[in-house]
């Protein structure tokens, strides 16, 4: 049995609340193998969540910068329009 397939089975059996000893017995491997598989699965899960959060943060950071730039442009236009209005009033 390939390691990836065994780890899929280990994950499935862990989700059913089987102990490492029960899983090892069912899969015909040593308990230390199951322990190592669970450790590897936890690390893979941790890395997946980390990568997901990292990509989401990058997306939201970029989105915030774009919105901030739009606001800056709009405030510049407002300031320019305000200055033009003042110039017109000074002429009158």
- Radius of gyration in whole Å, from Cα? 30 Å
Counting helices, strands and paired strands, the structural category is: mainly alpha
Count of helices? Answer: 3
Report the CATH C-level class. Answer: Mainly Alpha
CATH architecture: Orthogonal Bundle
Number of strands: 0
CATH topology: Arc Repressor Mutant, subunit A
Instruction: Give start-end ranges of low-pLDDT stretches.
Output: none
How many separate domains? 1
Strand fraction equals: under 5%
What average pLDDT do the residues reach? 85
Biggest sheet details = none
Task: Give the helix proportion (percent range).
Answer: over 70%
Oligomer type: single chain
Shape: rod-shaped
Instruction: Provide the succession of SSEs.
Output: HHH
Question: How far is the first residue's CA from the last residue's CA?
Answer: 90 Å
Helix/strand layout:
Blueprint: H1 3-15, H2 20-27, H3 31-91
Helix pairs in contact: 1-3, 2-3
Attribute tags:
3 helices, 92 residues, mainly alpha, Arc Repressor Mutant, subunit A
Would you write up a description of this structure?
This protein has 92 residues and is mainly alpha-helical. It has a single domain, classed as Arc Repressor Mutant, subunit A (Orthogonal Bundle). It has 3 helices and no strands. It is rod-shaped, with a radius of gyration of 30 Å.
Q: Summarize this, please?
A:
With 92 residues, the protein is an all-alpha fold.
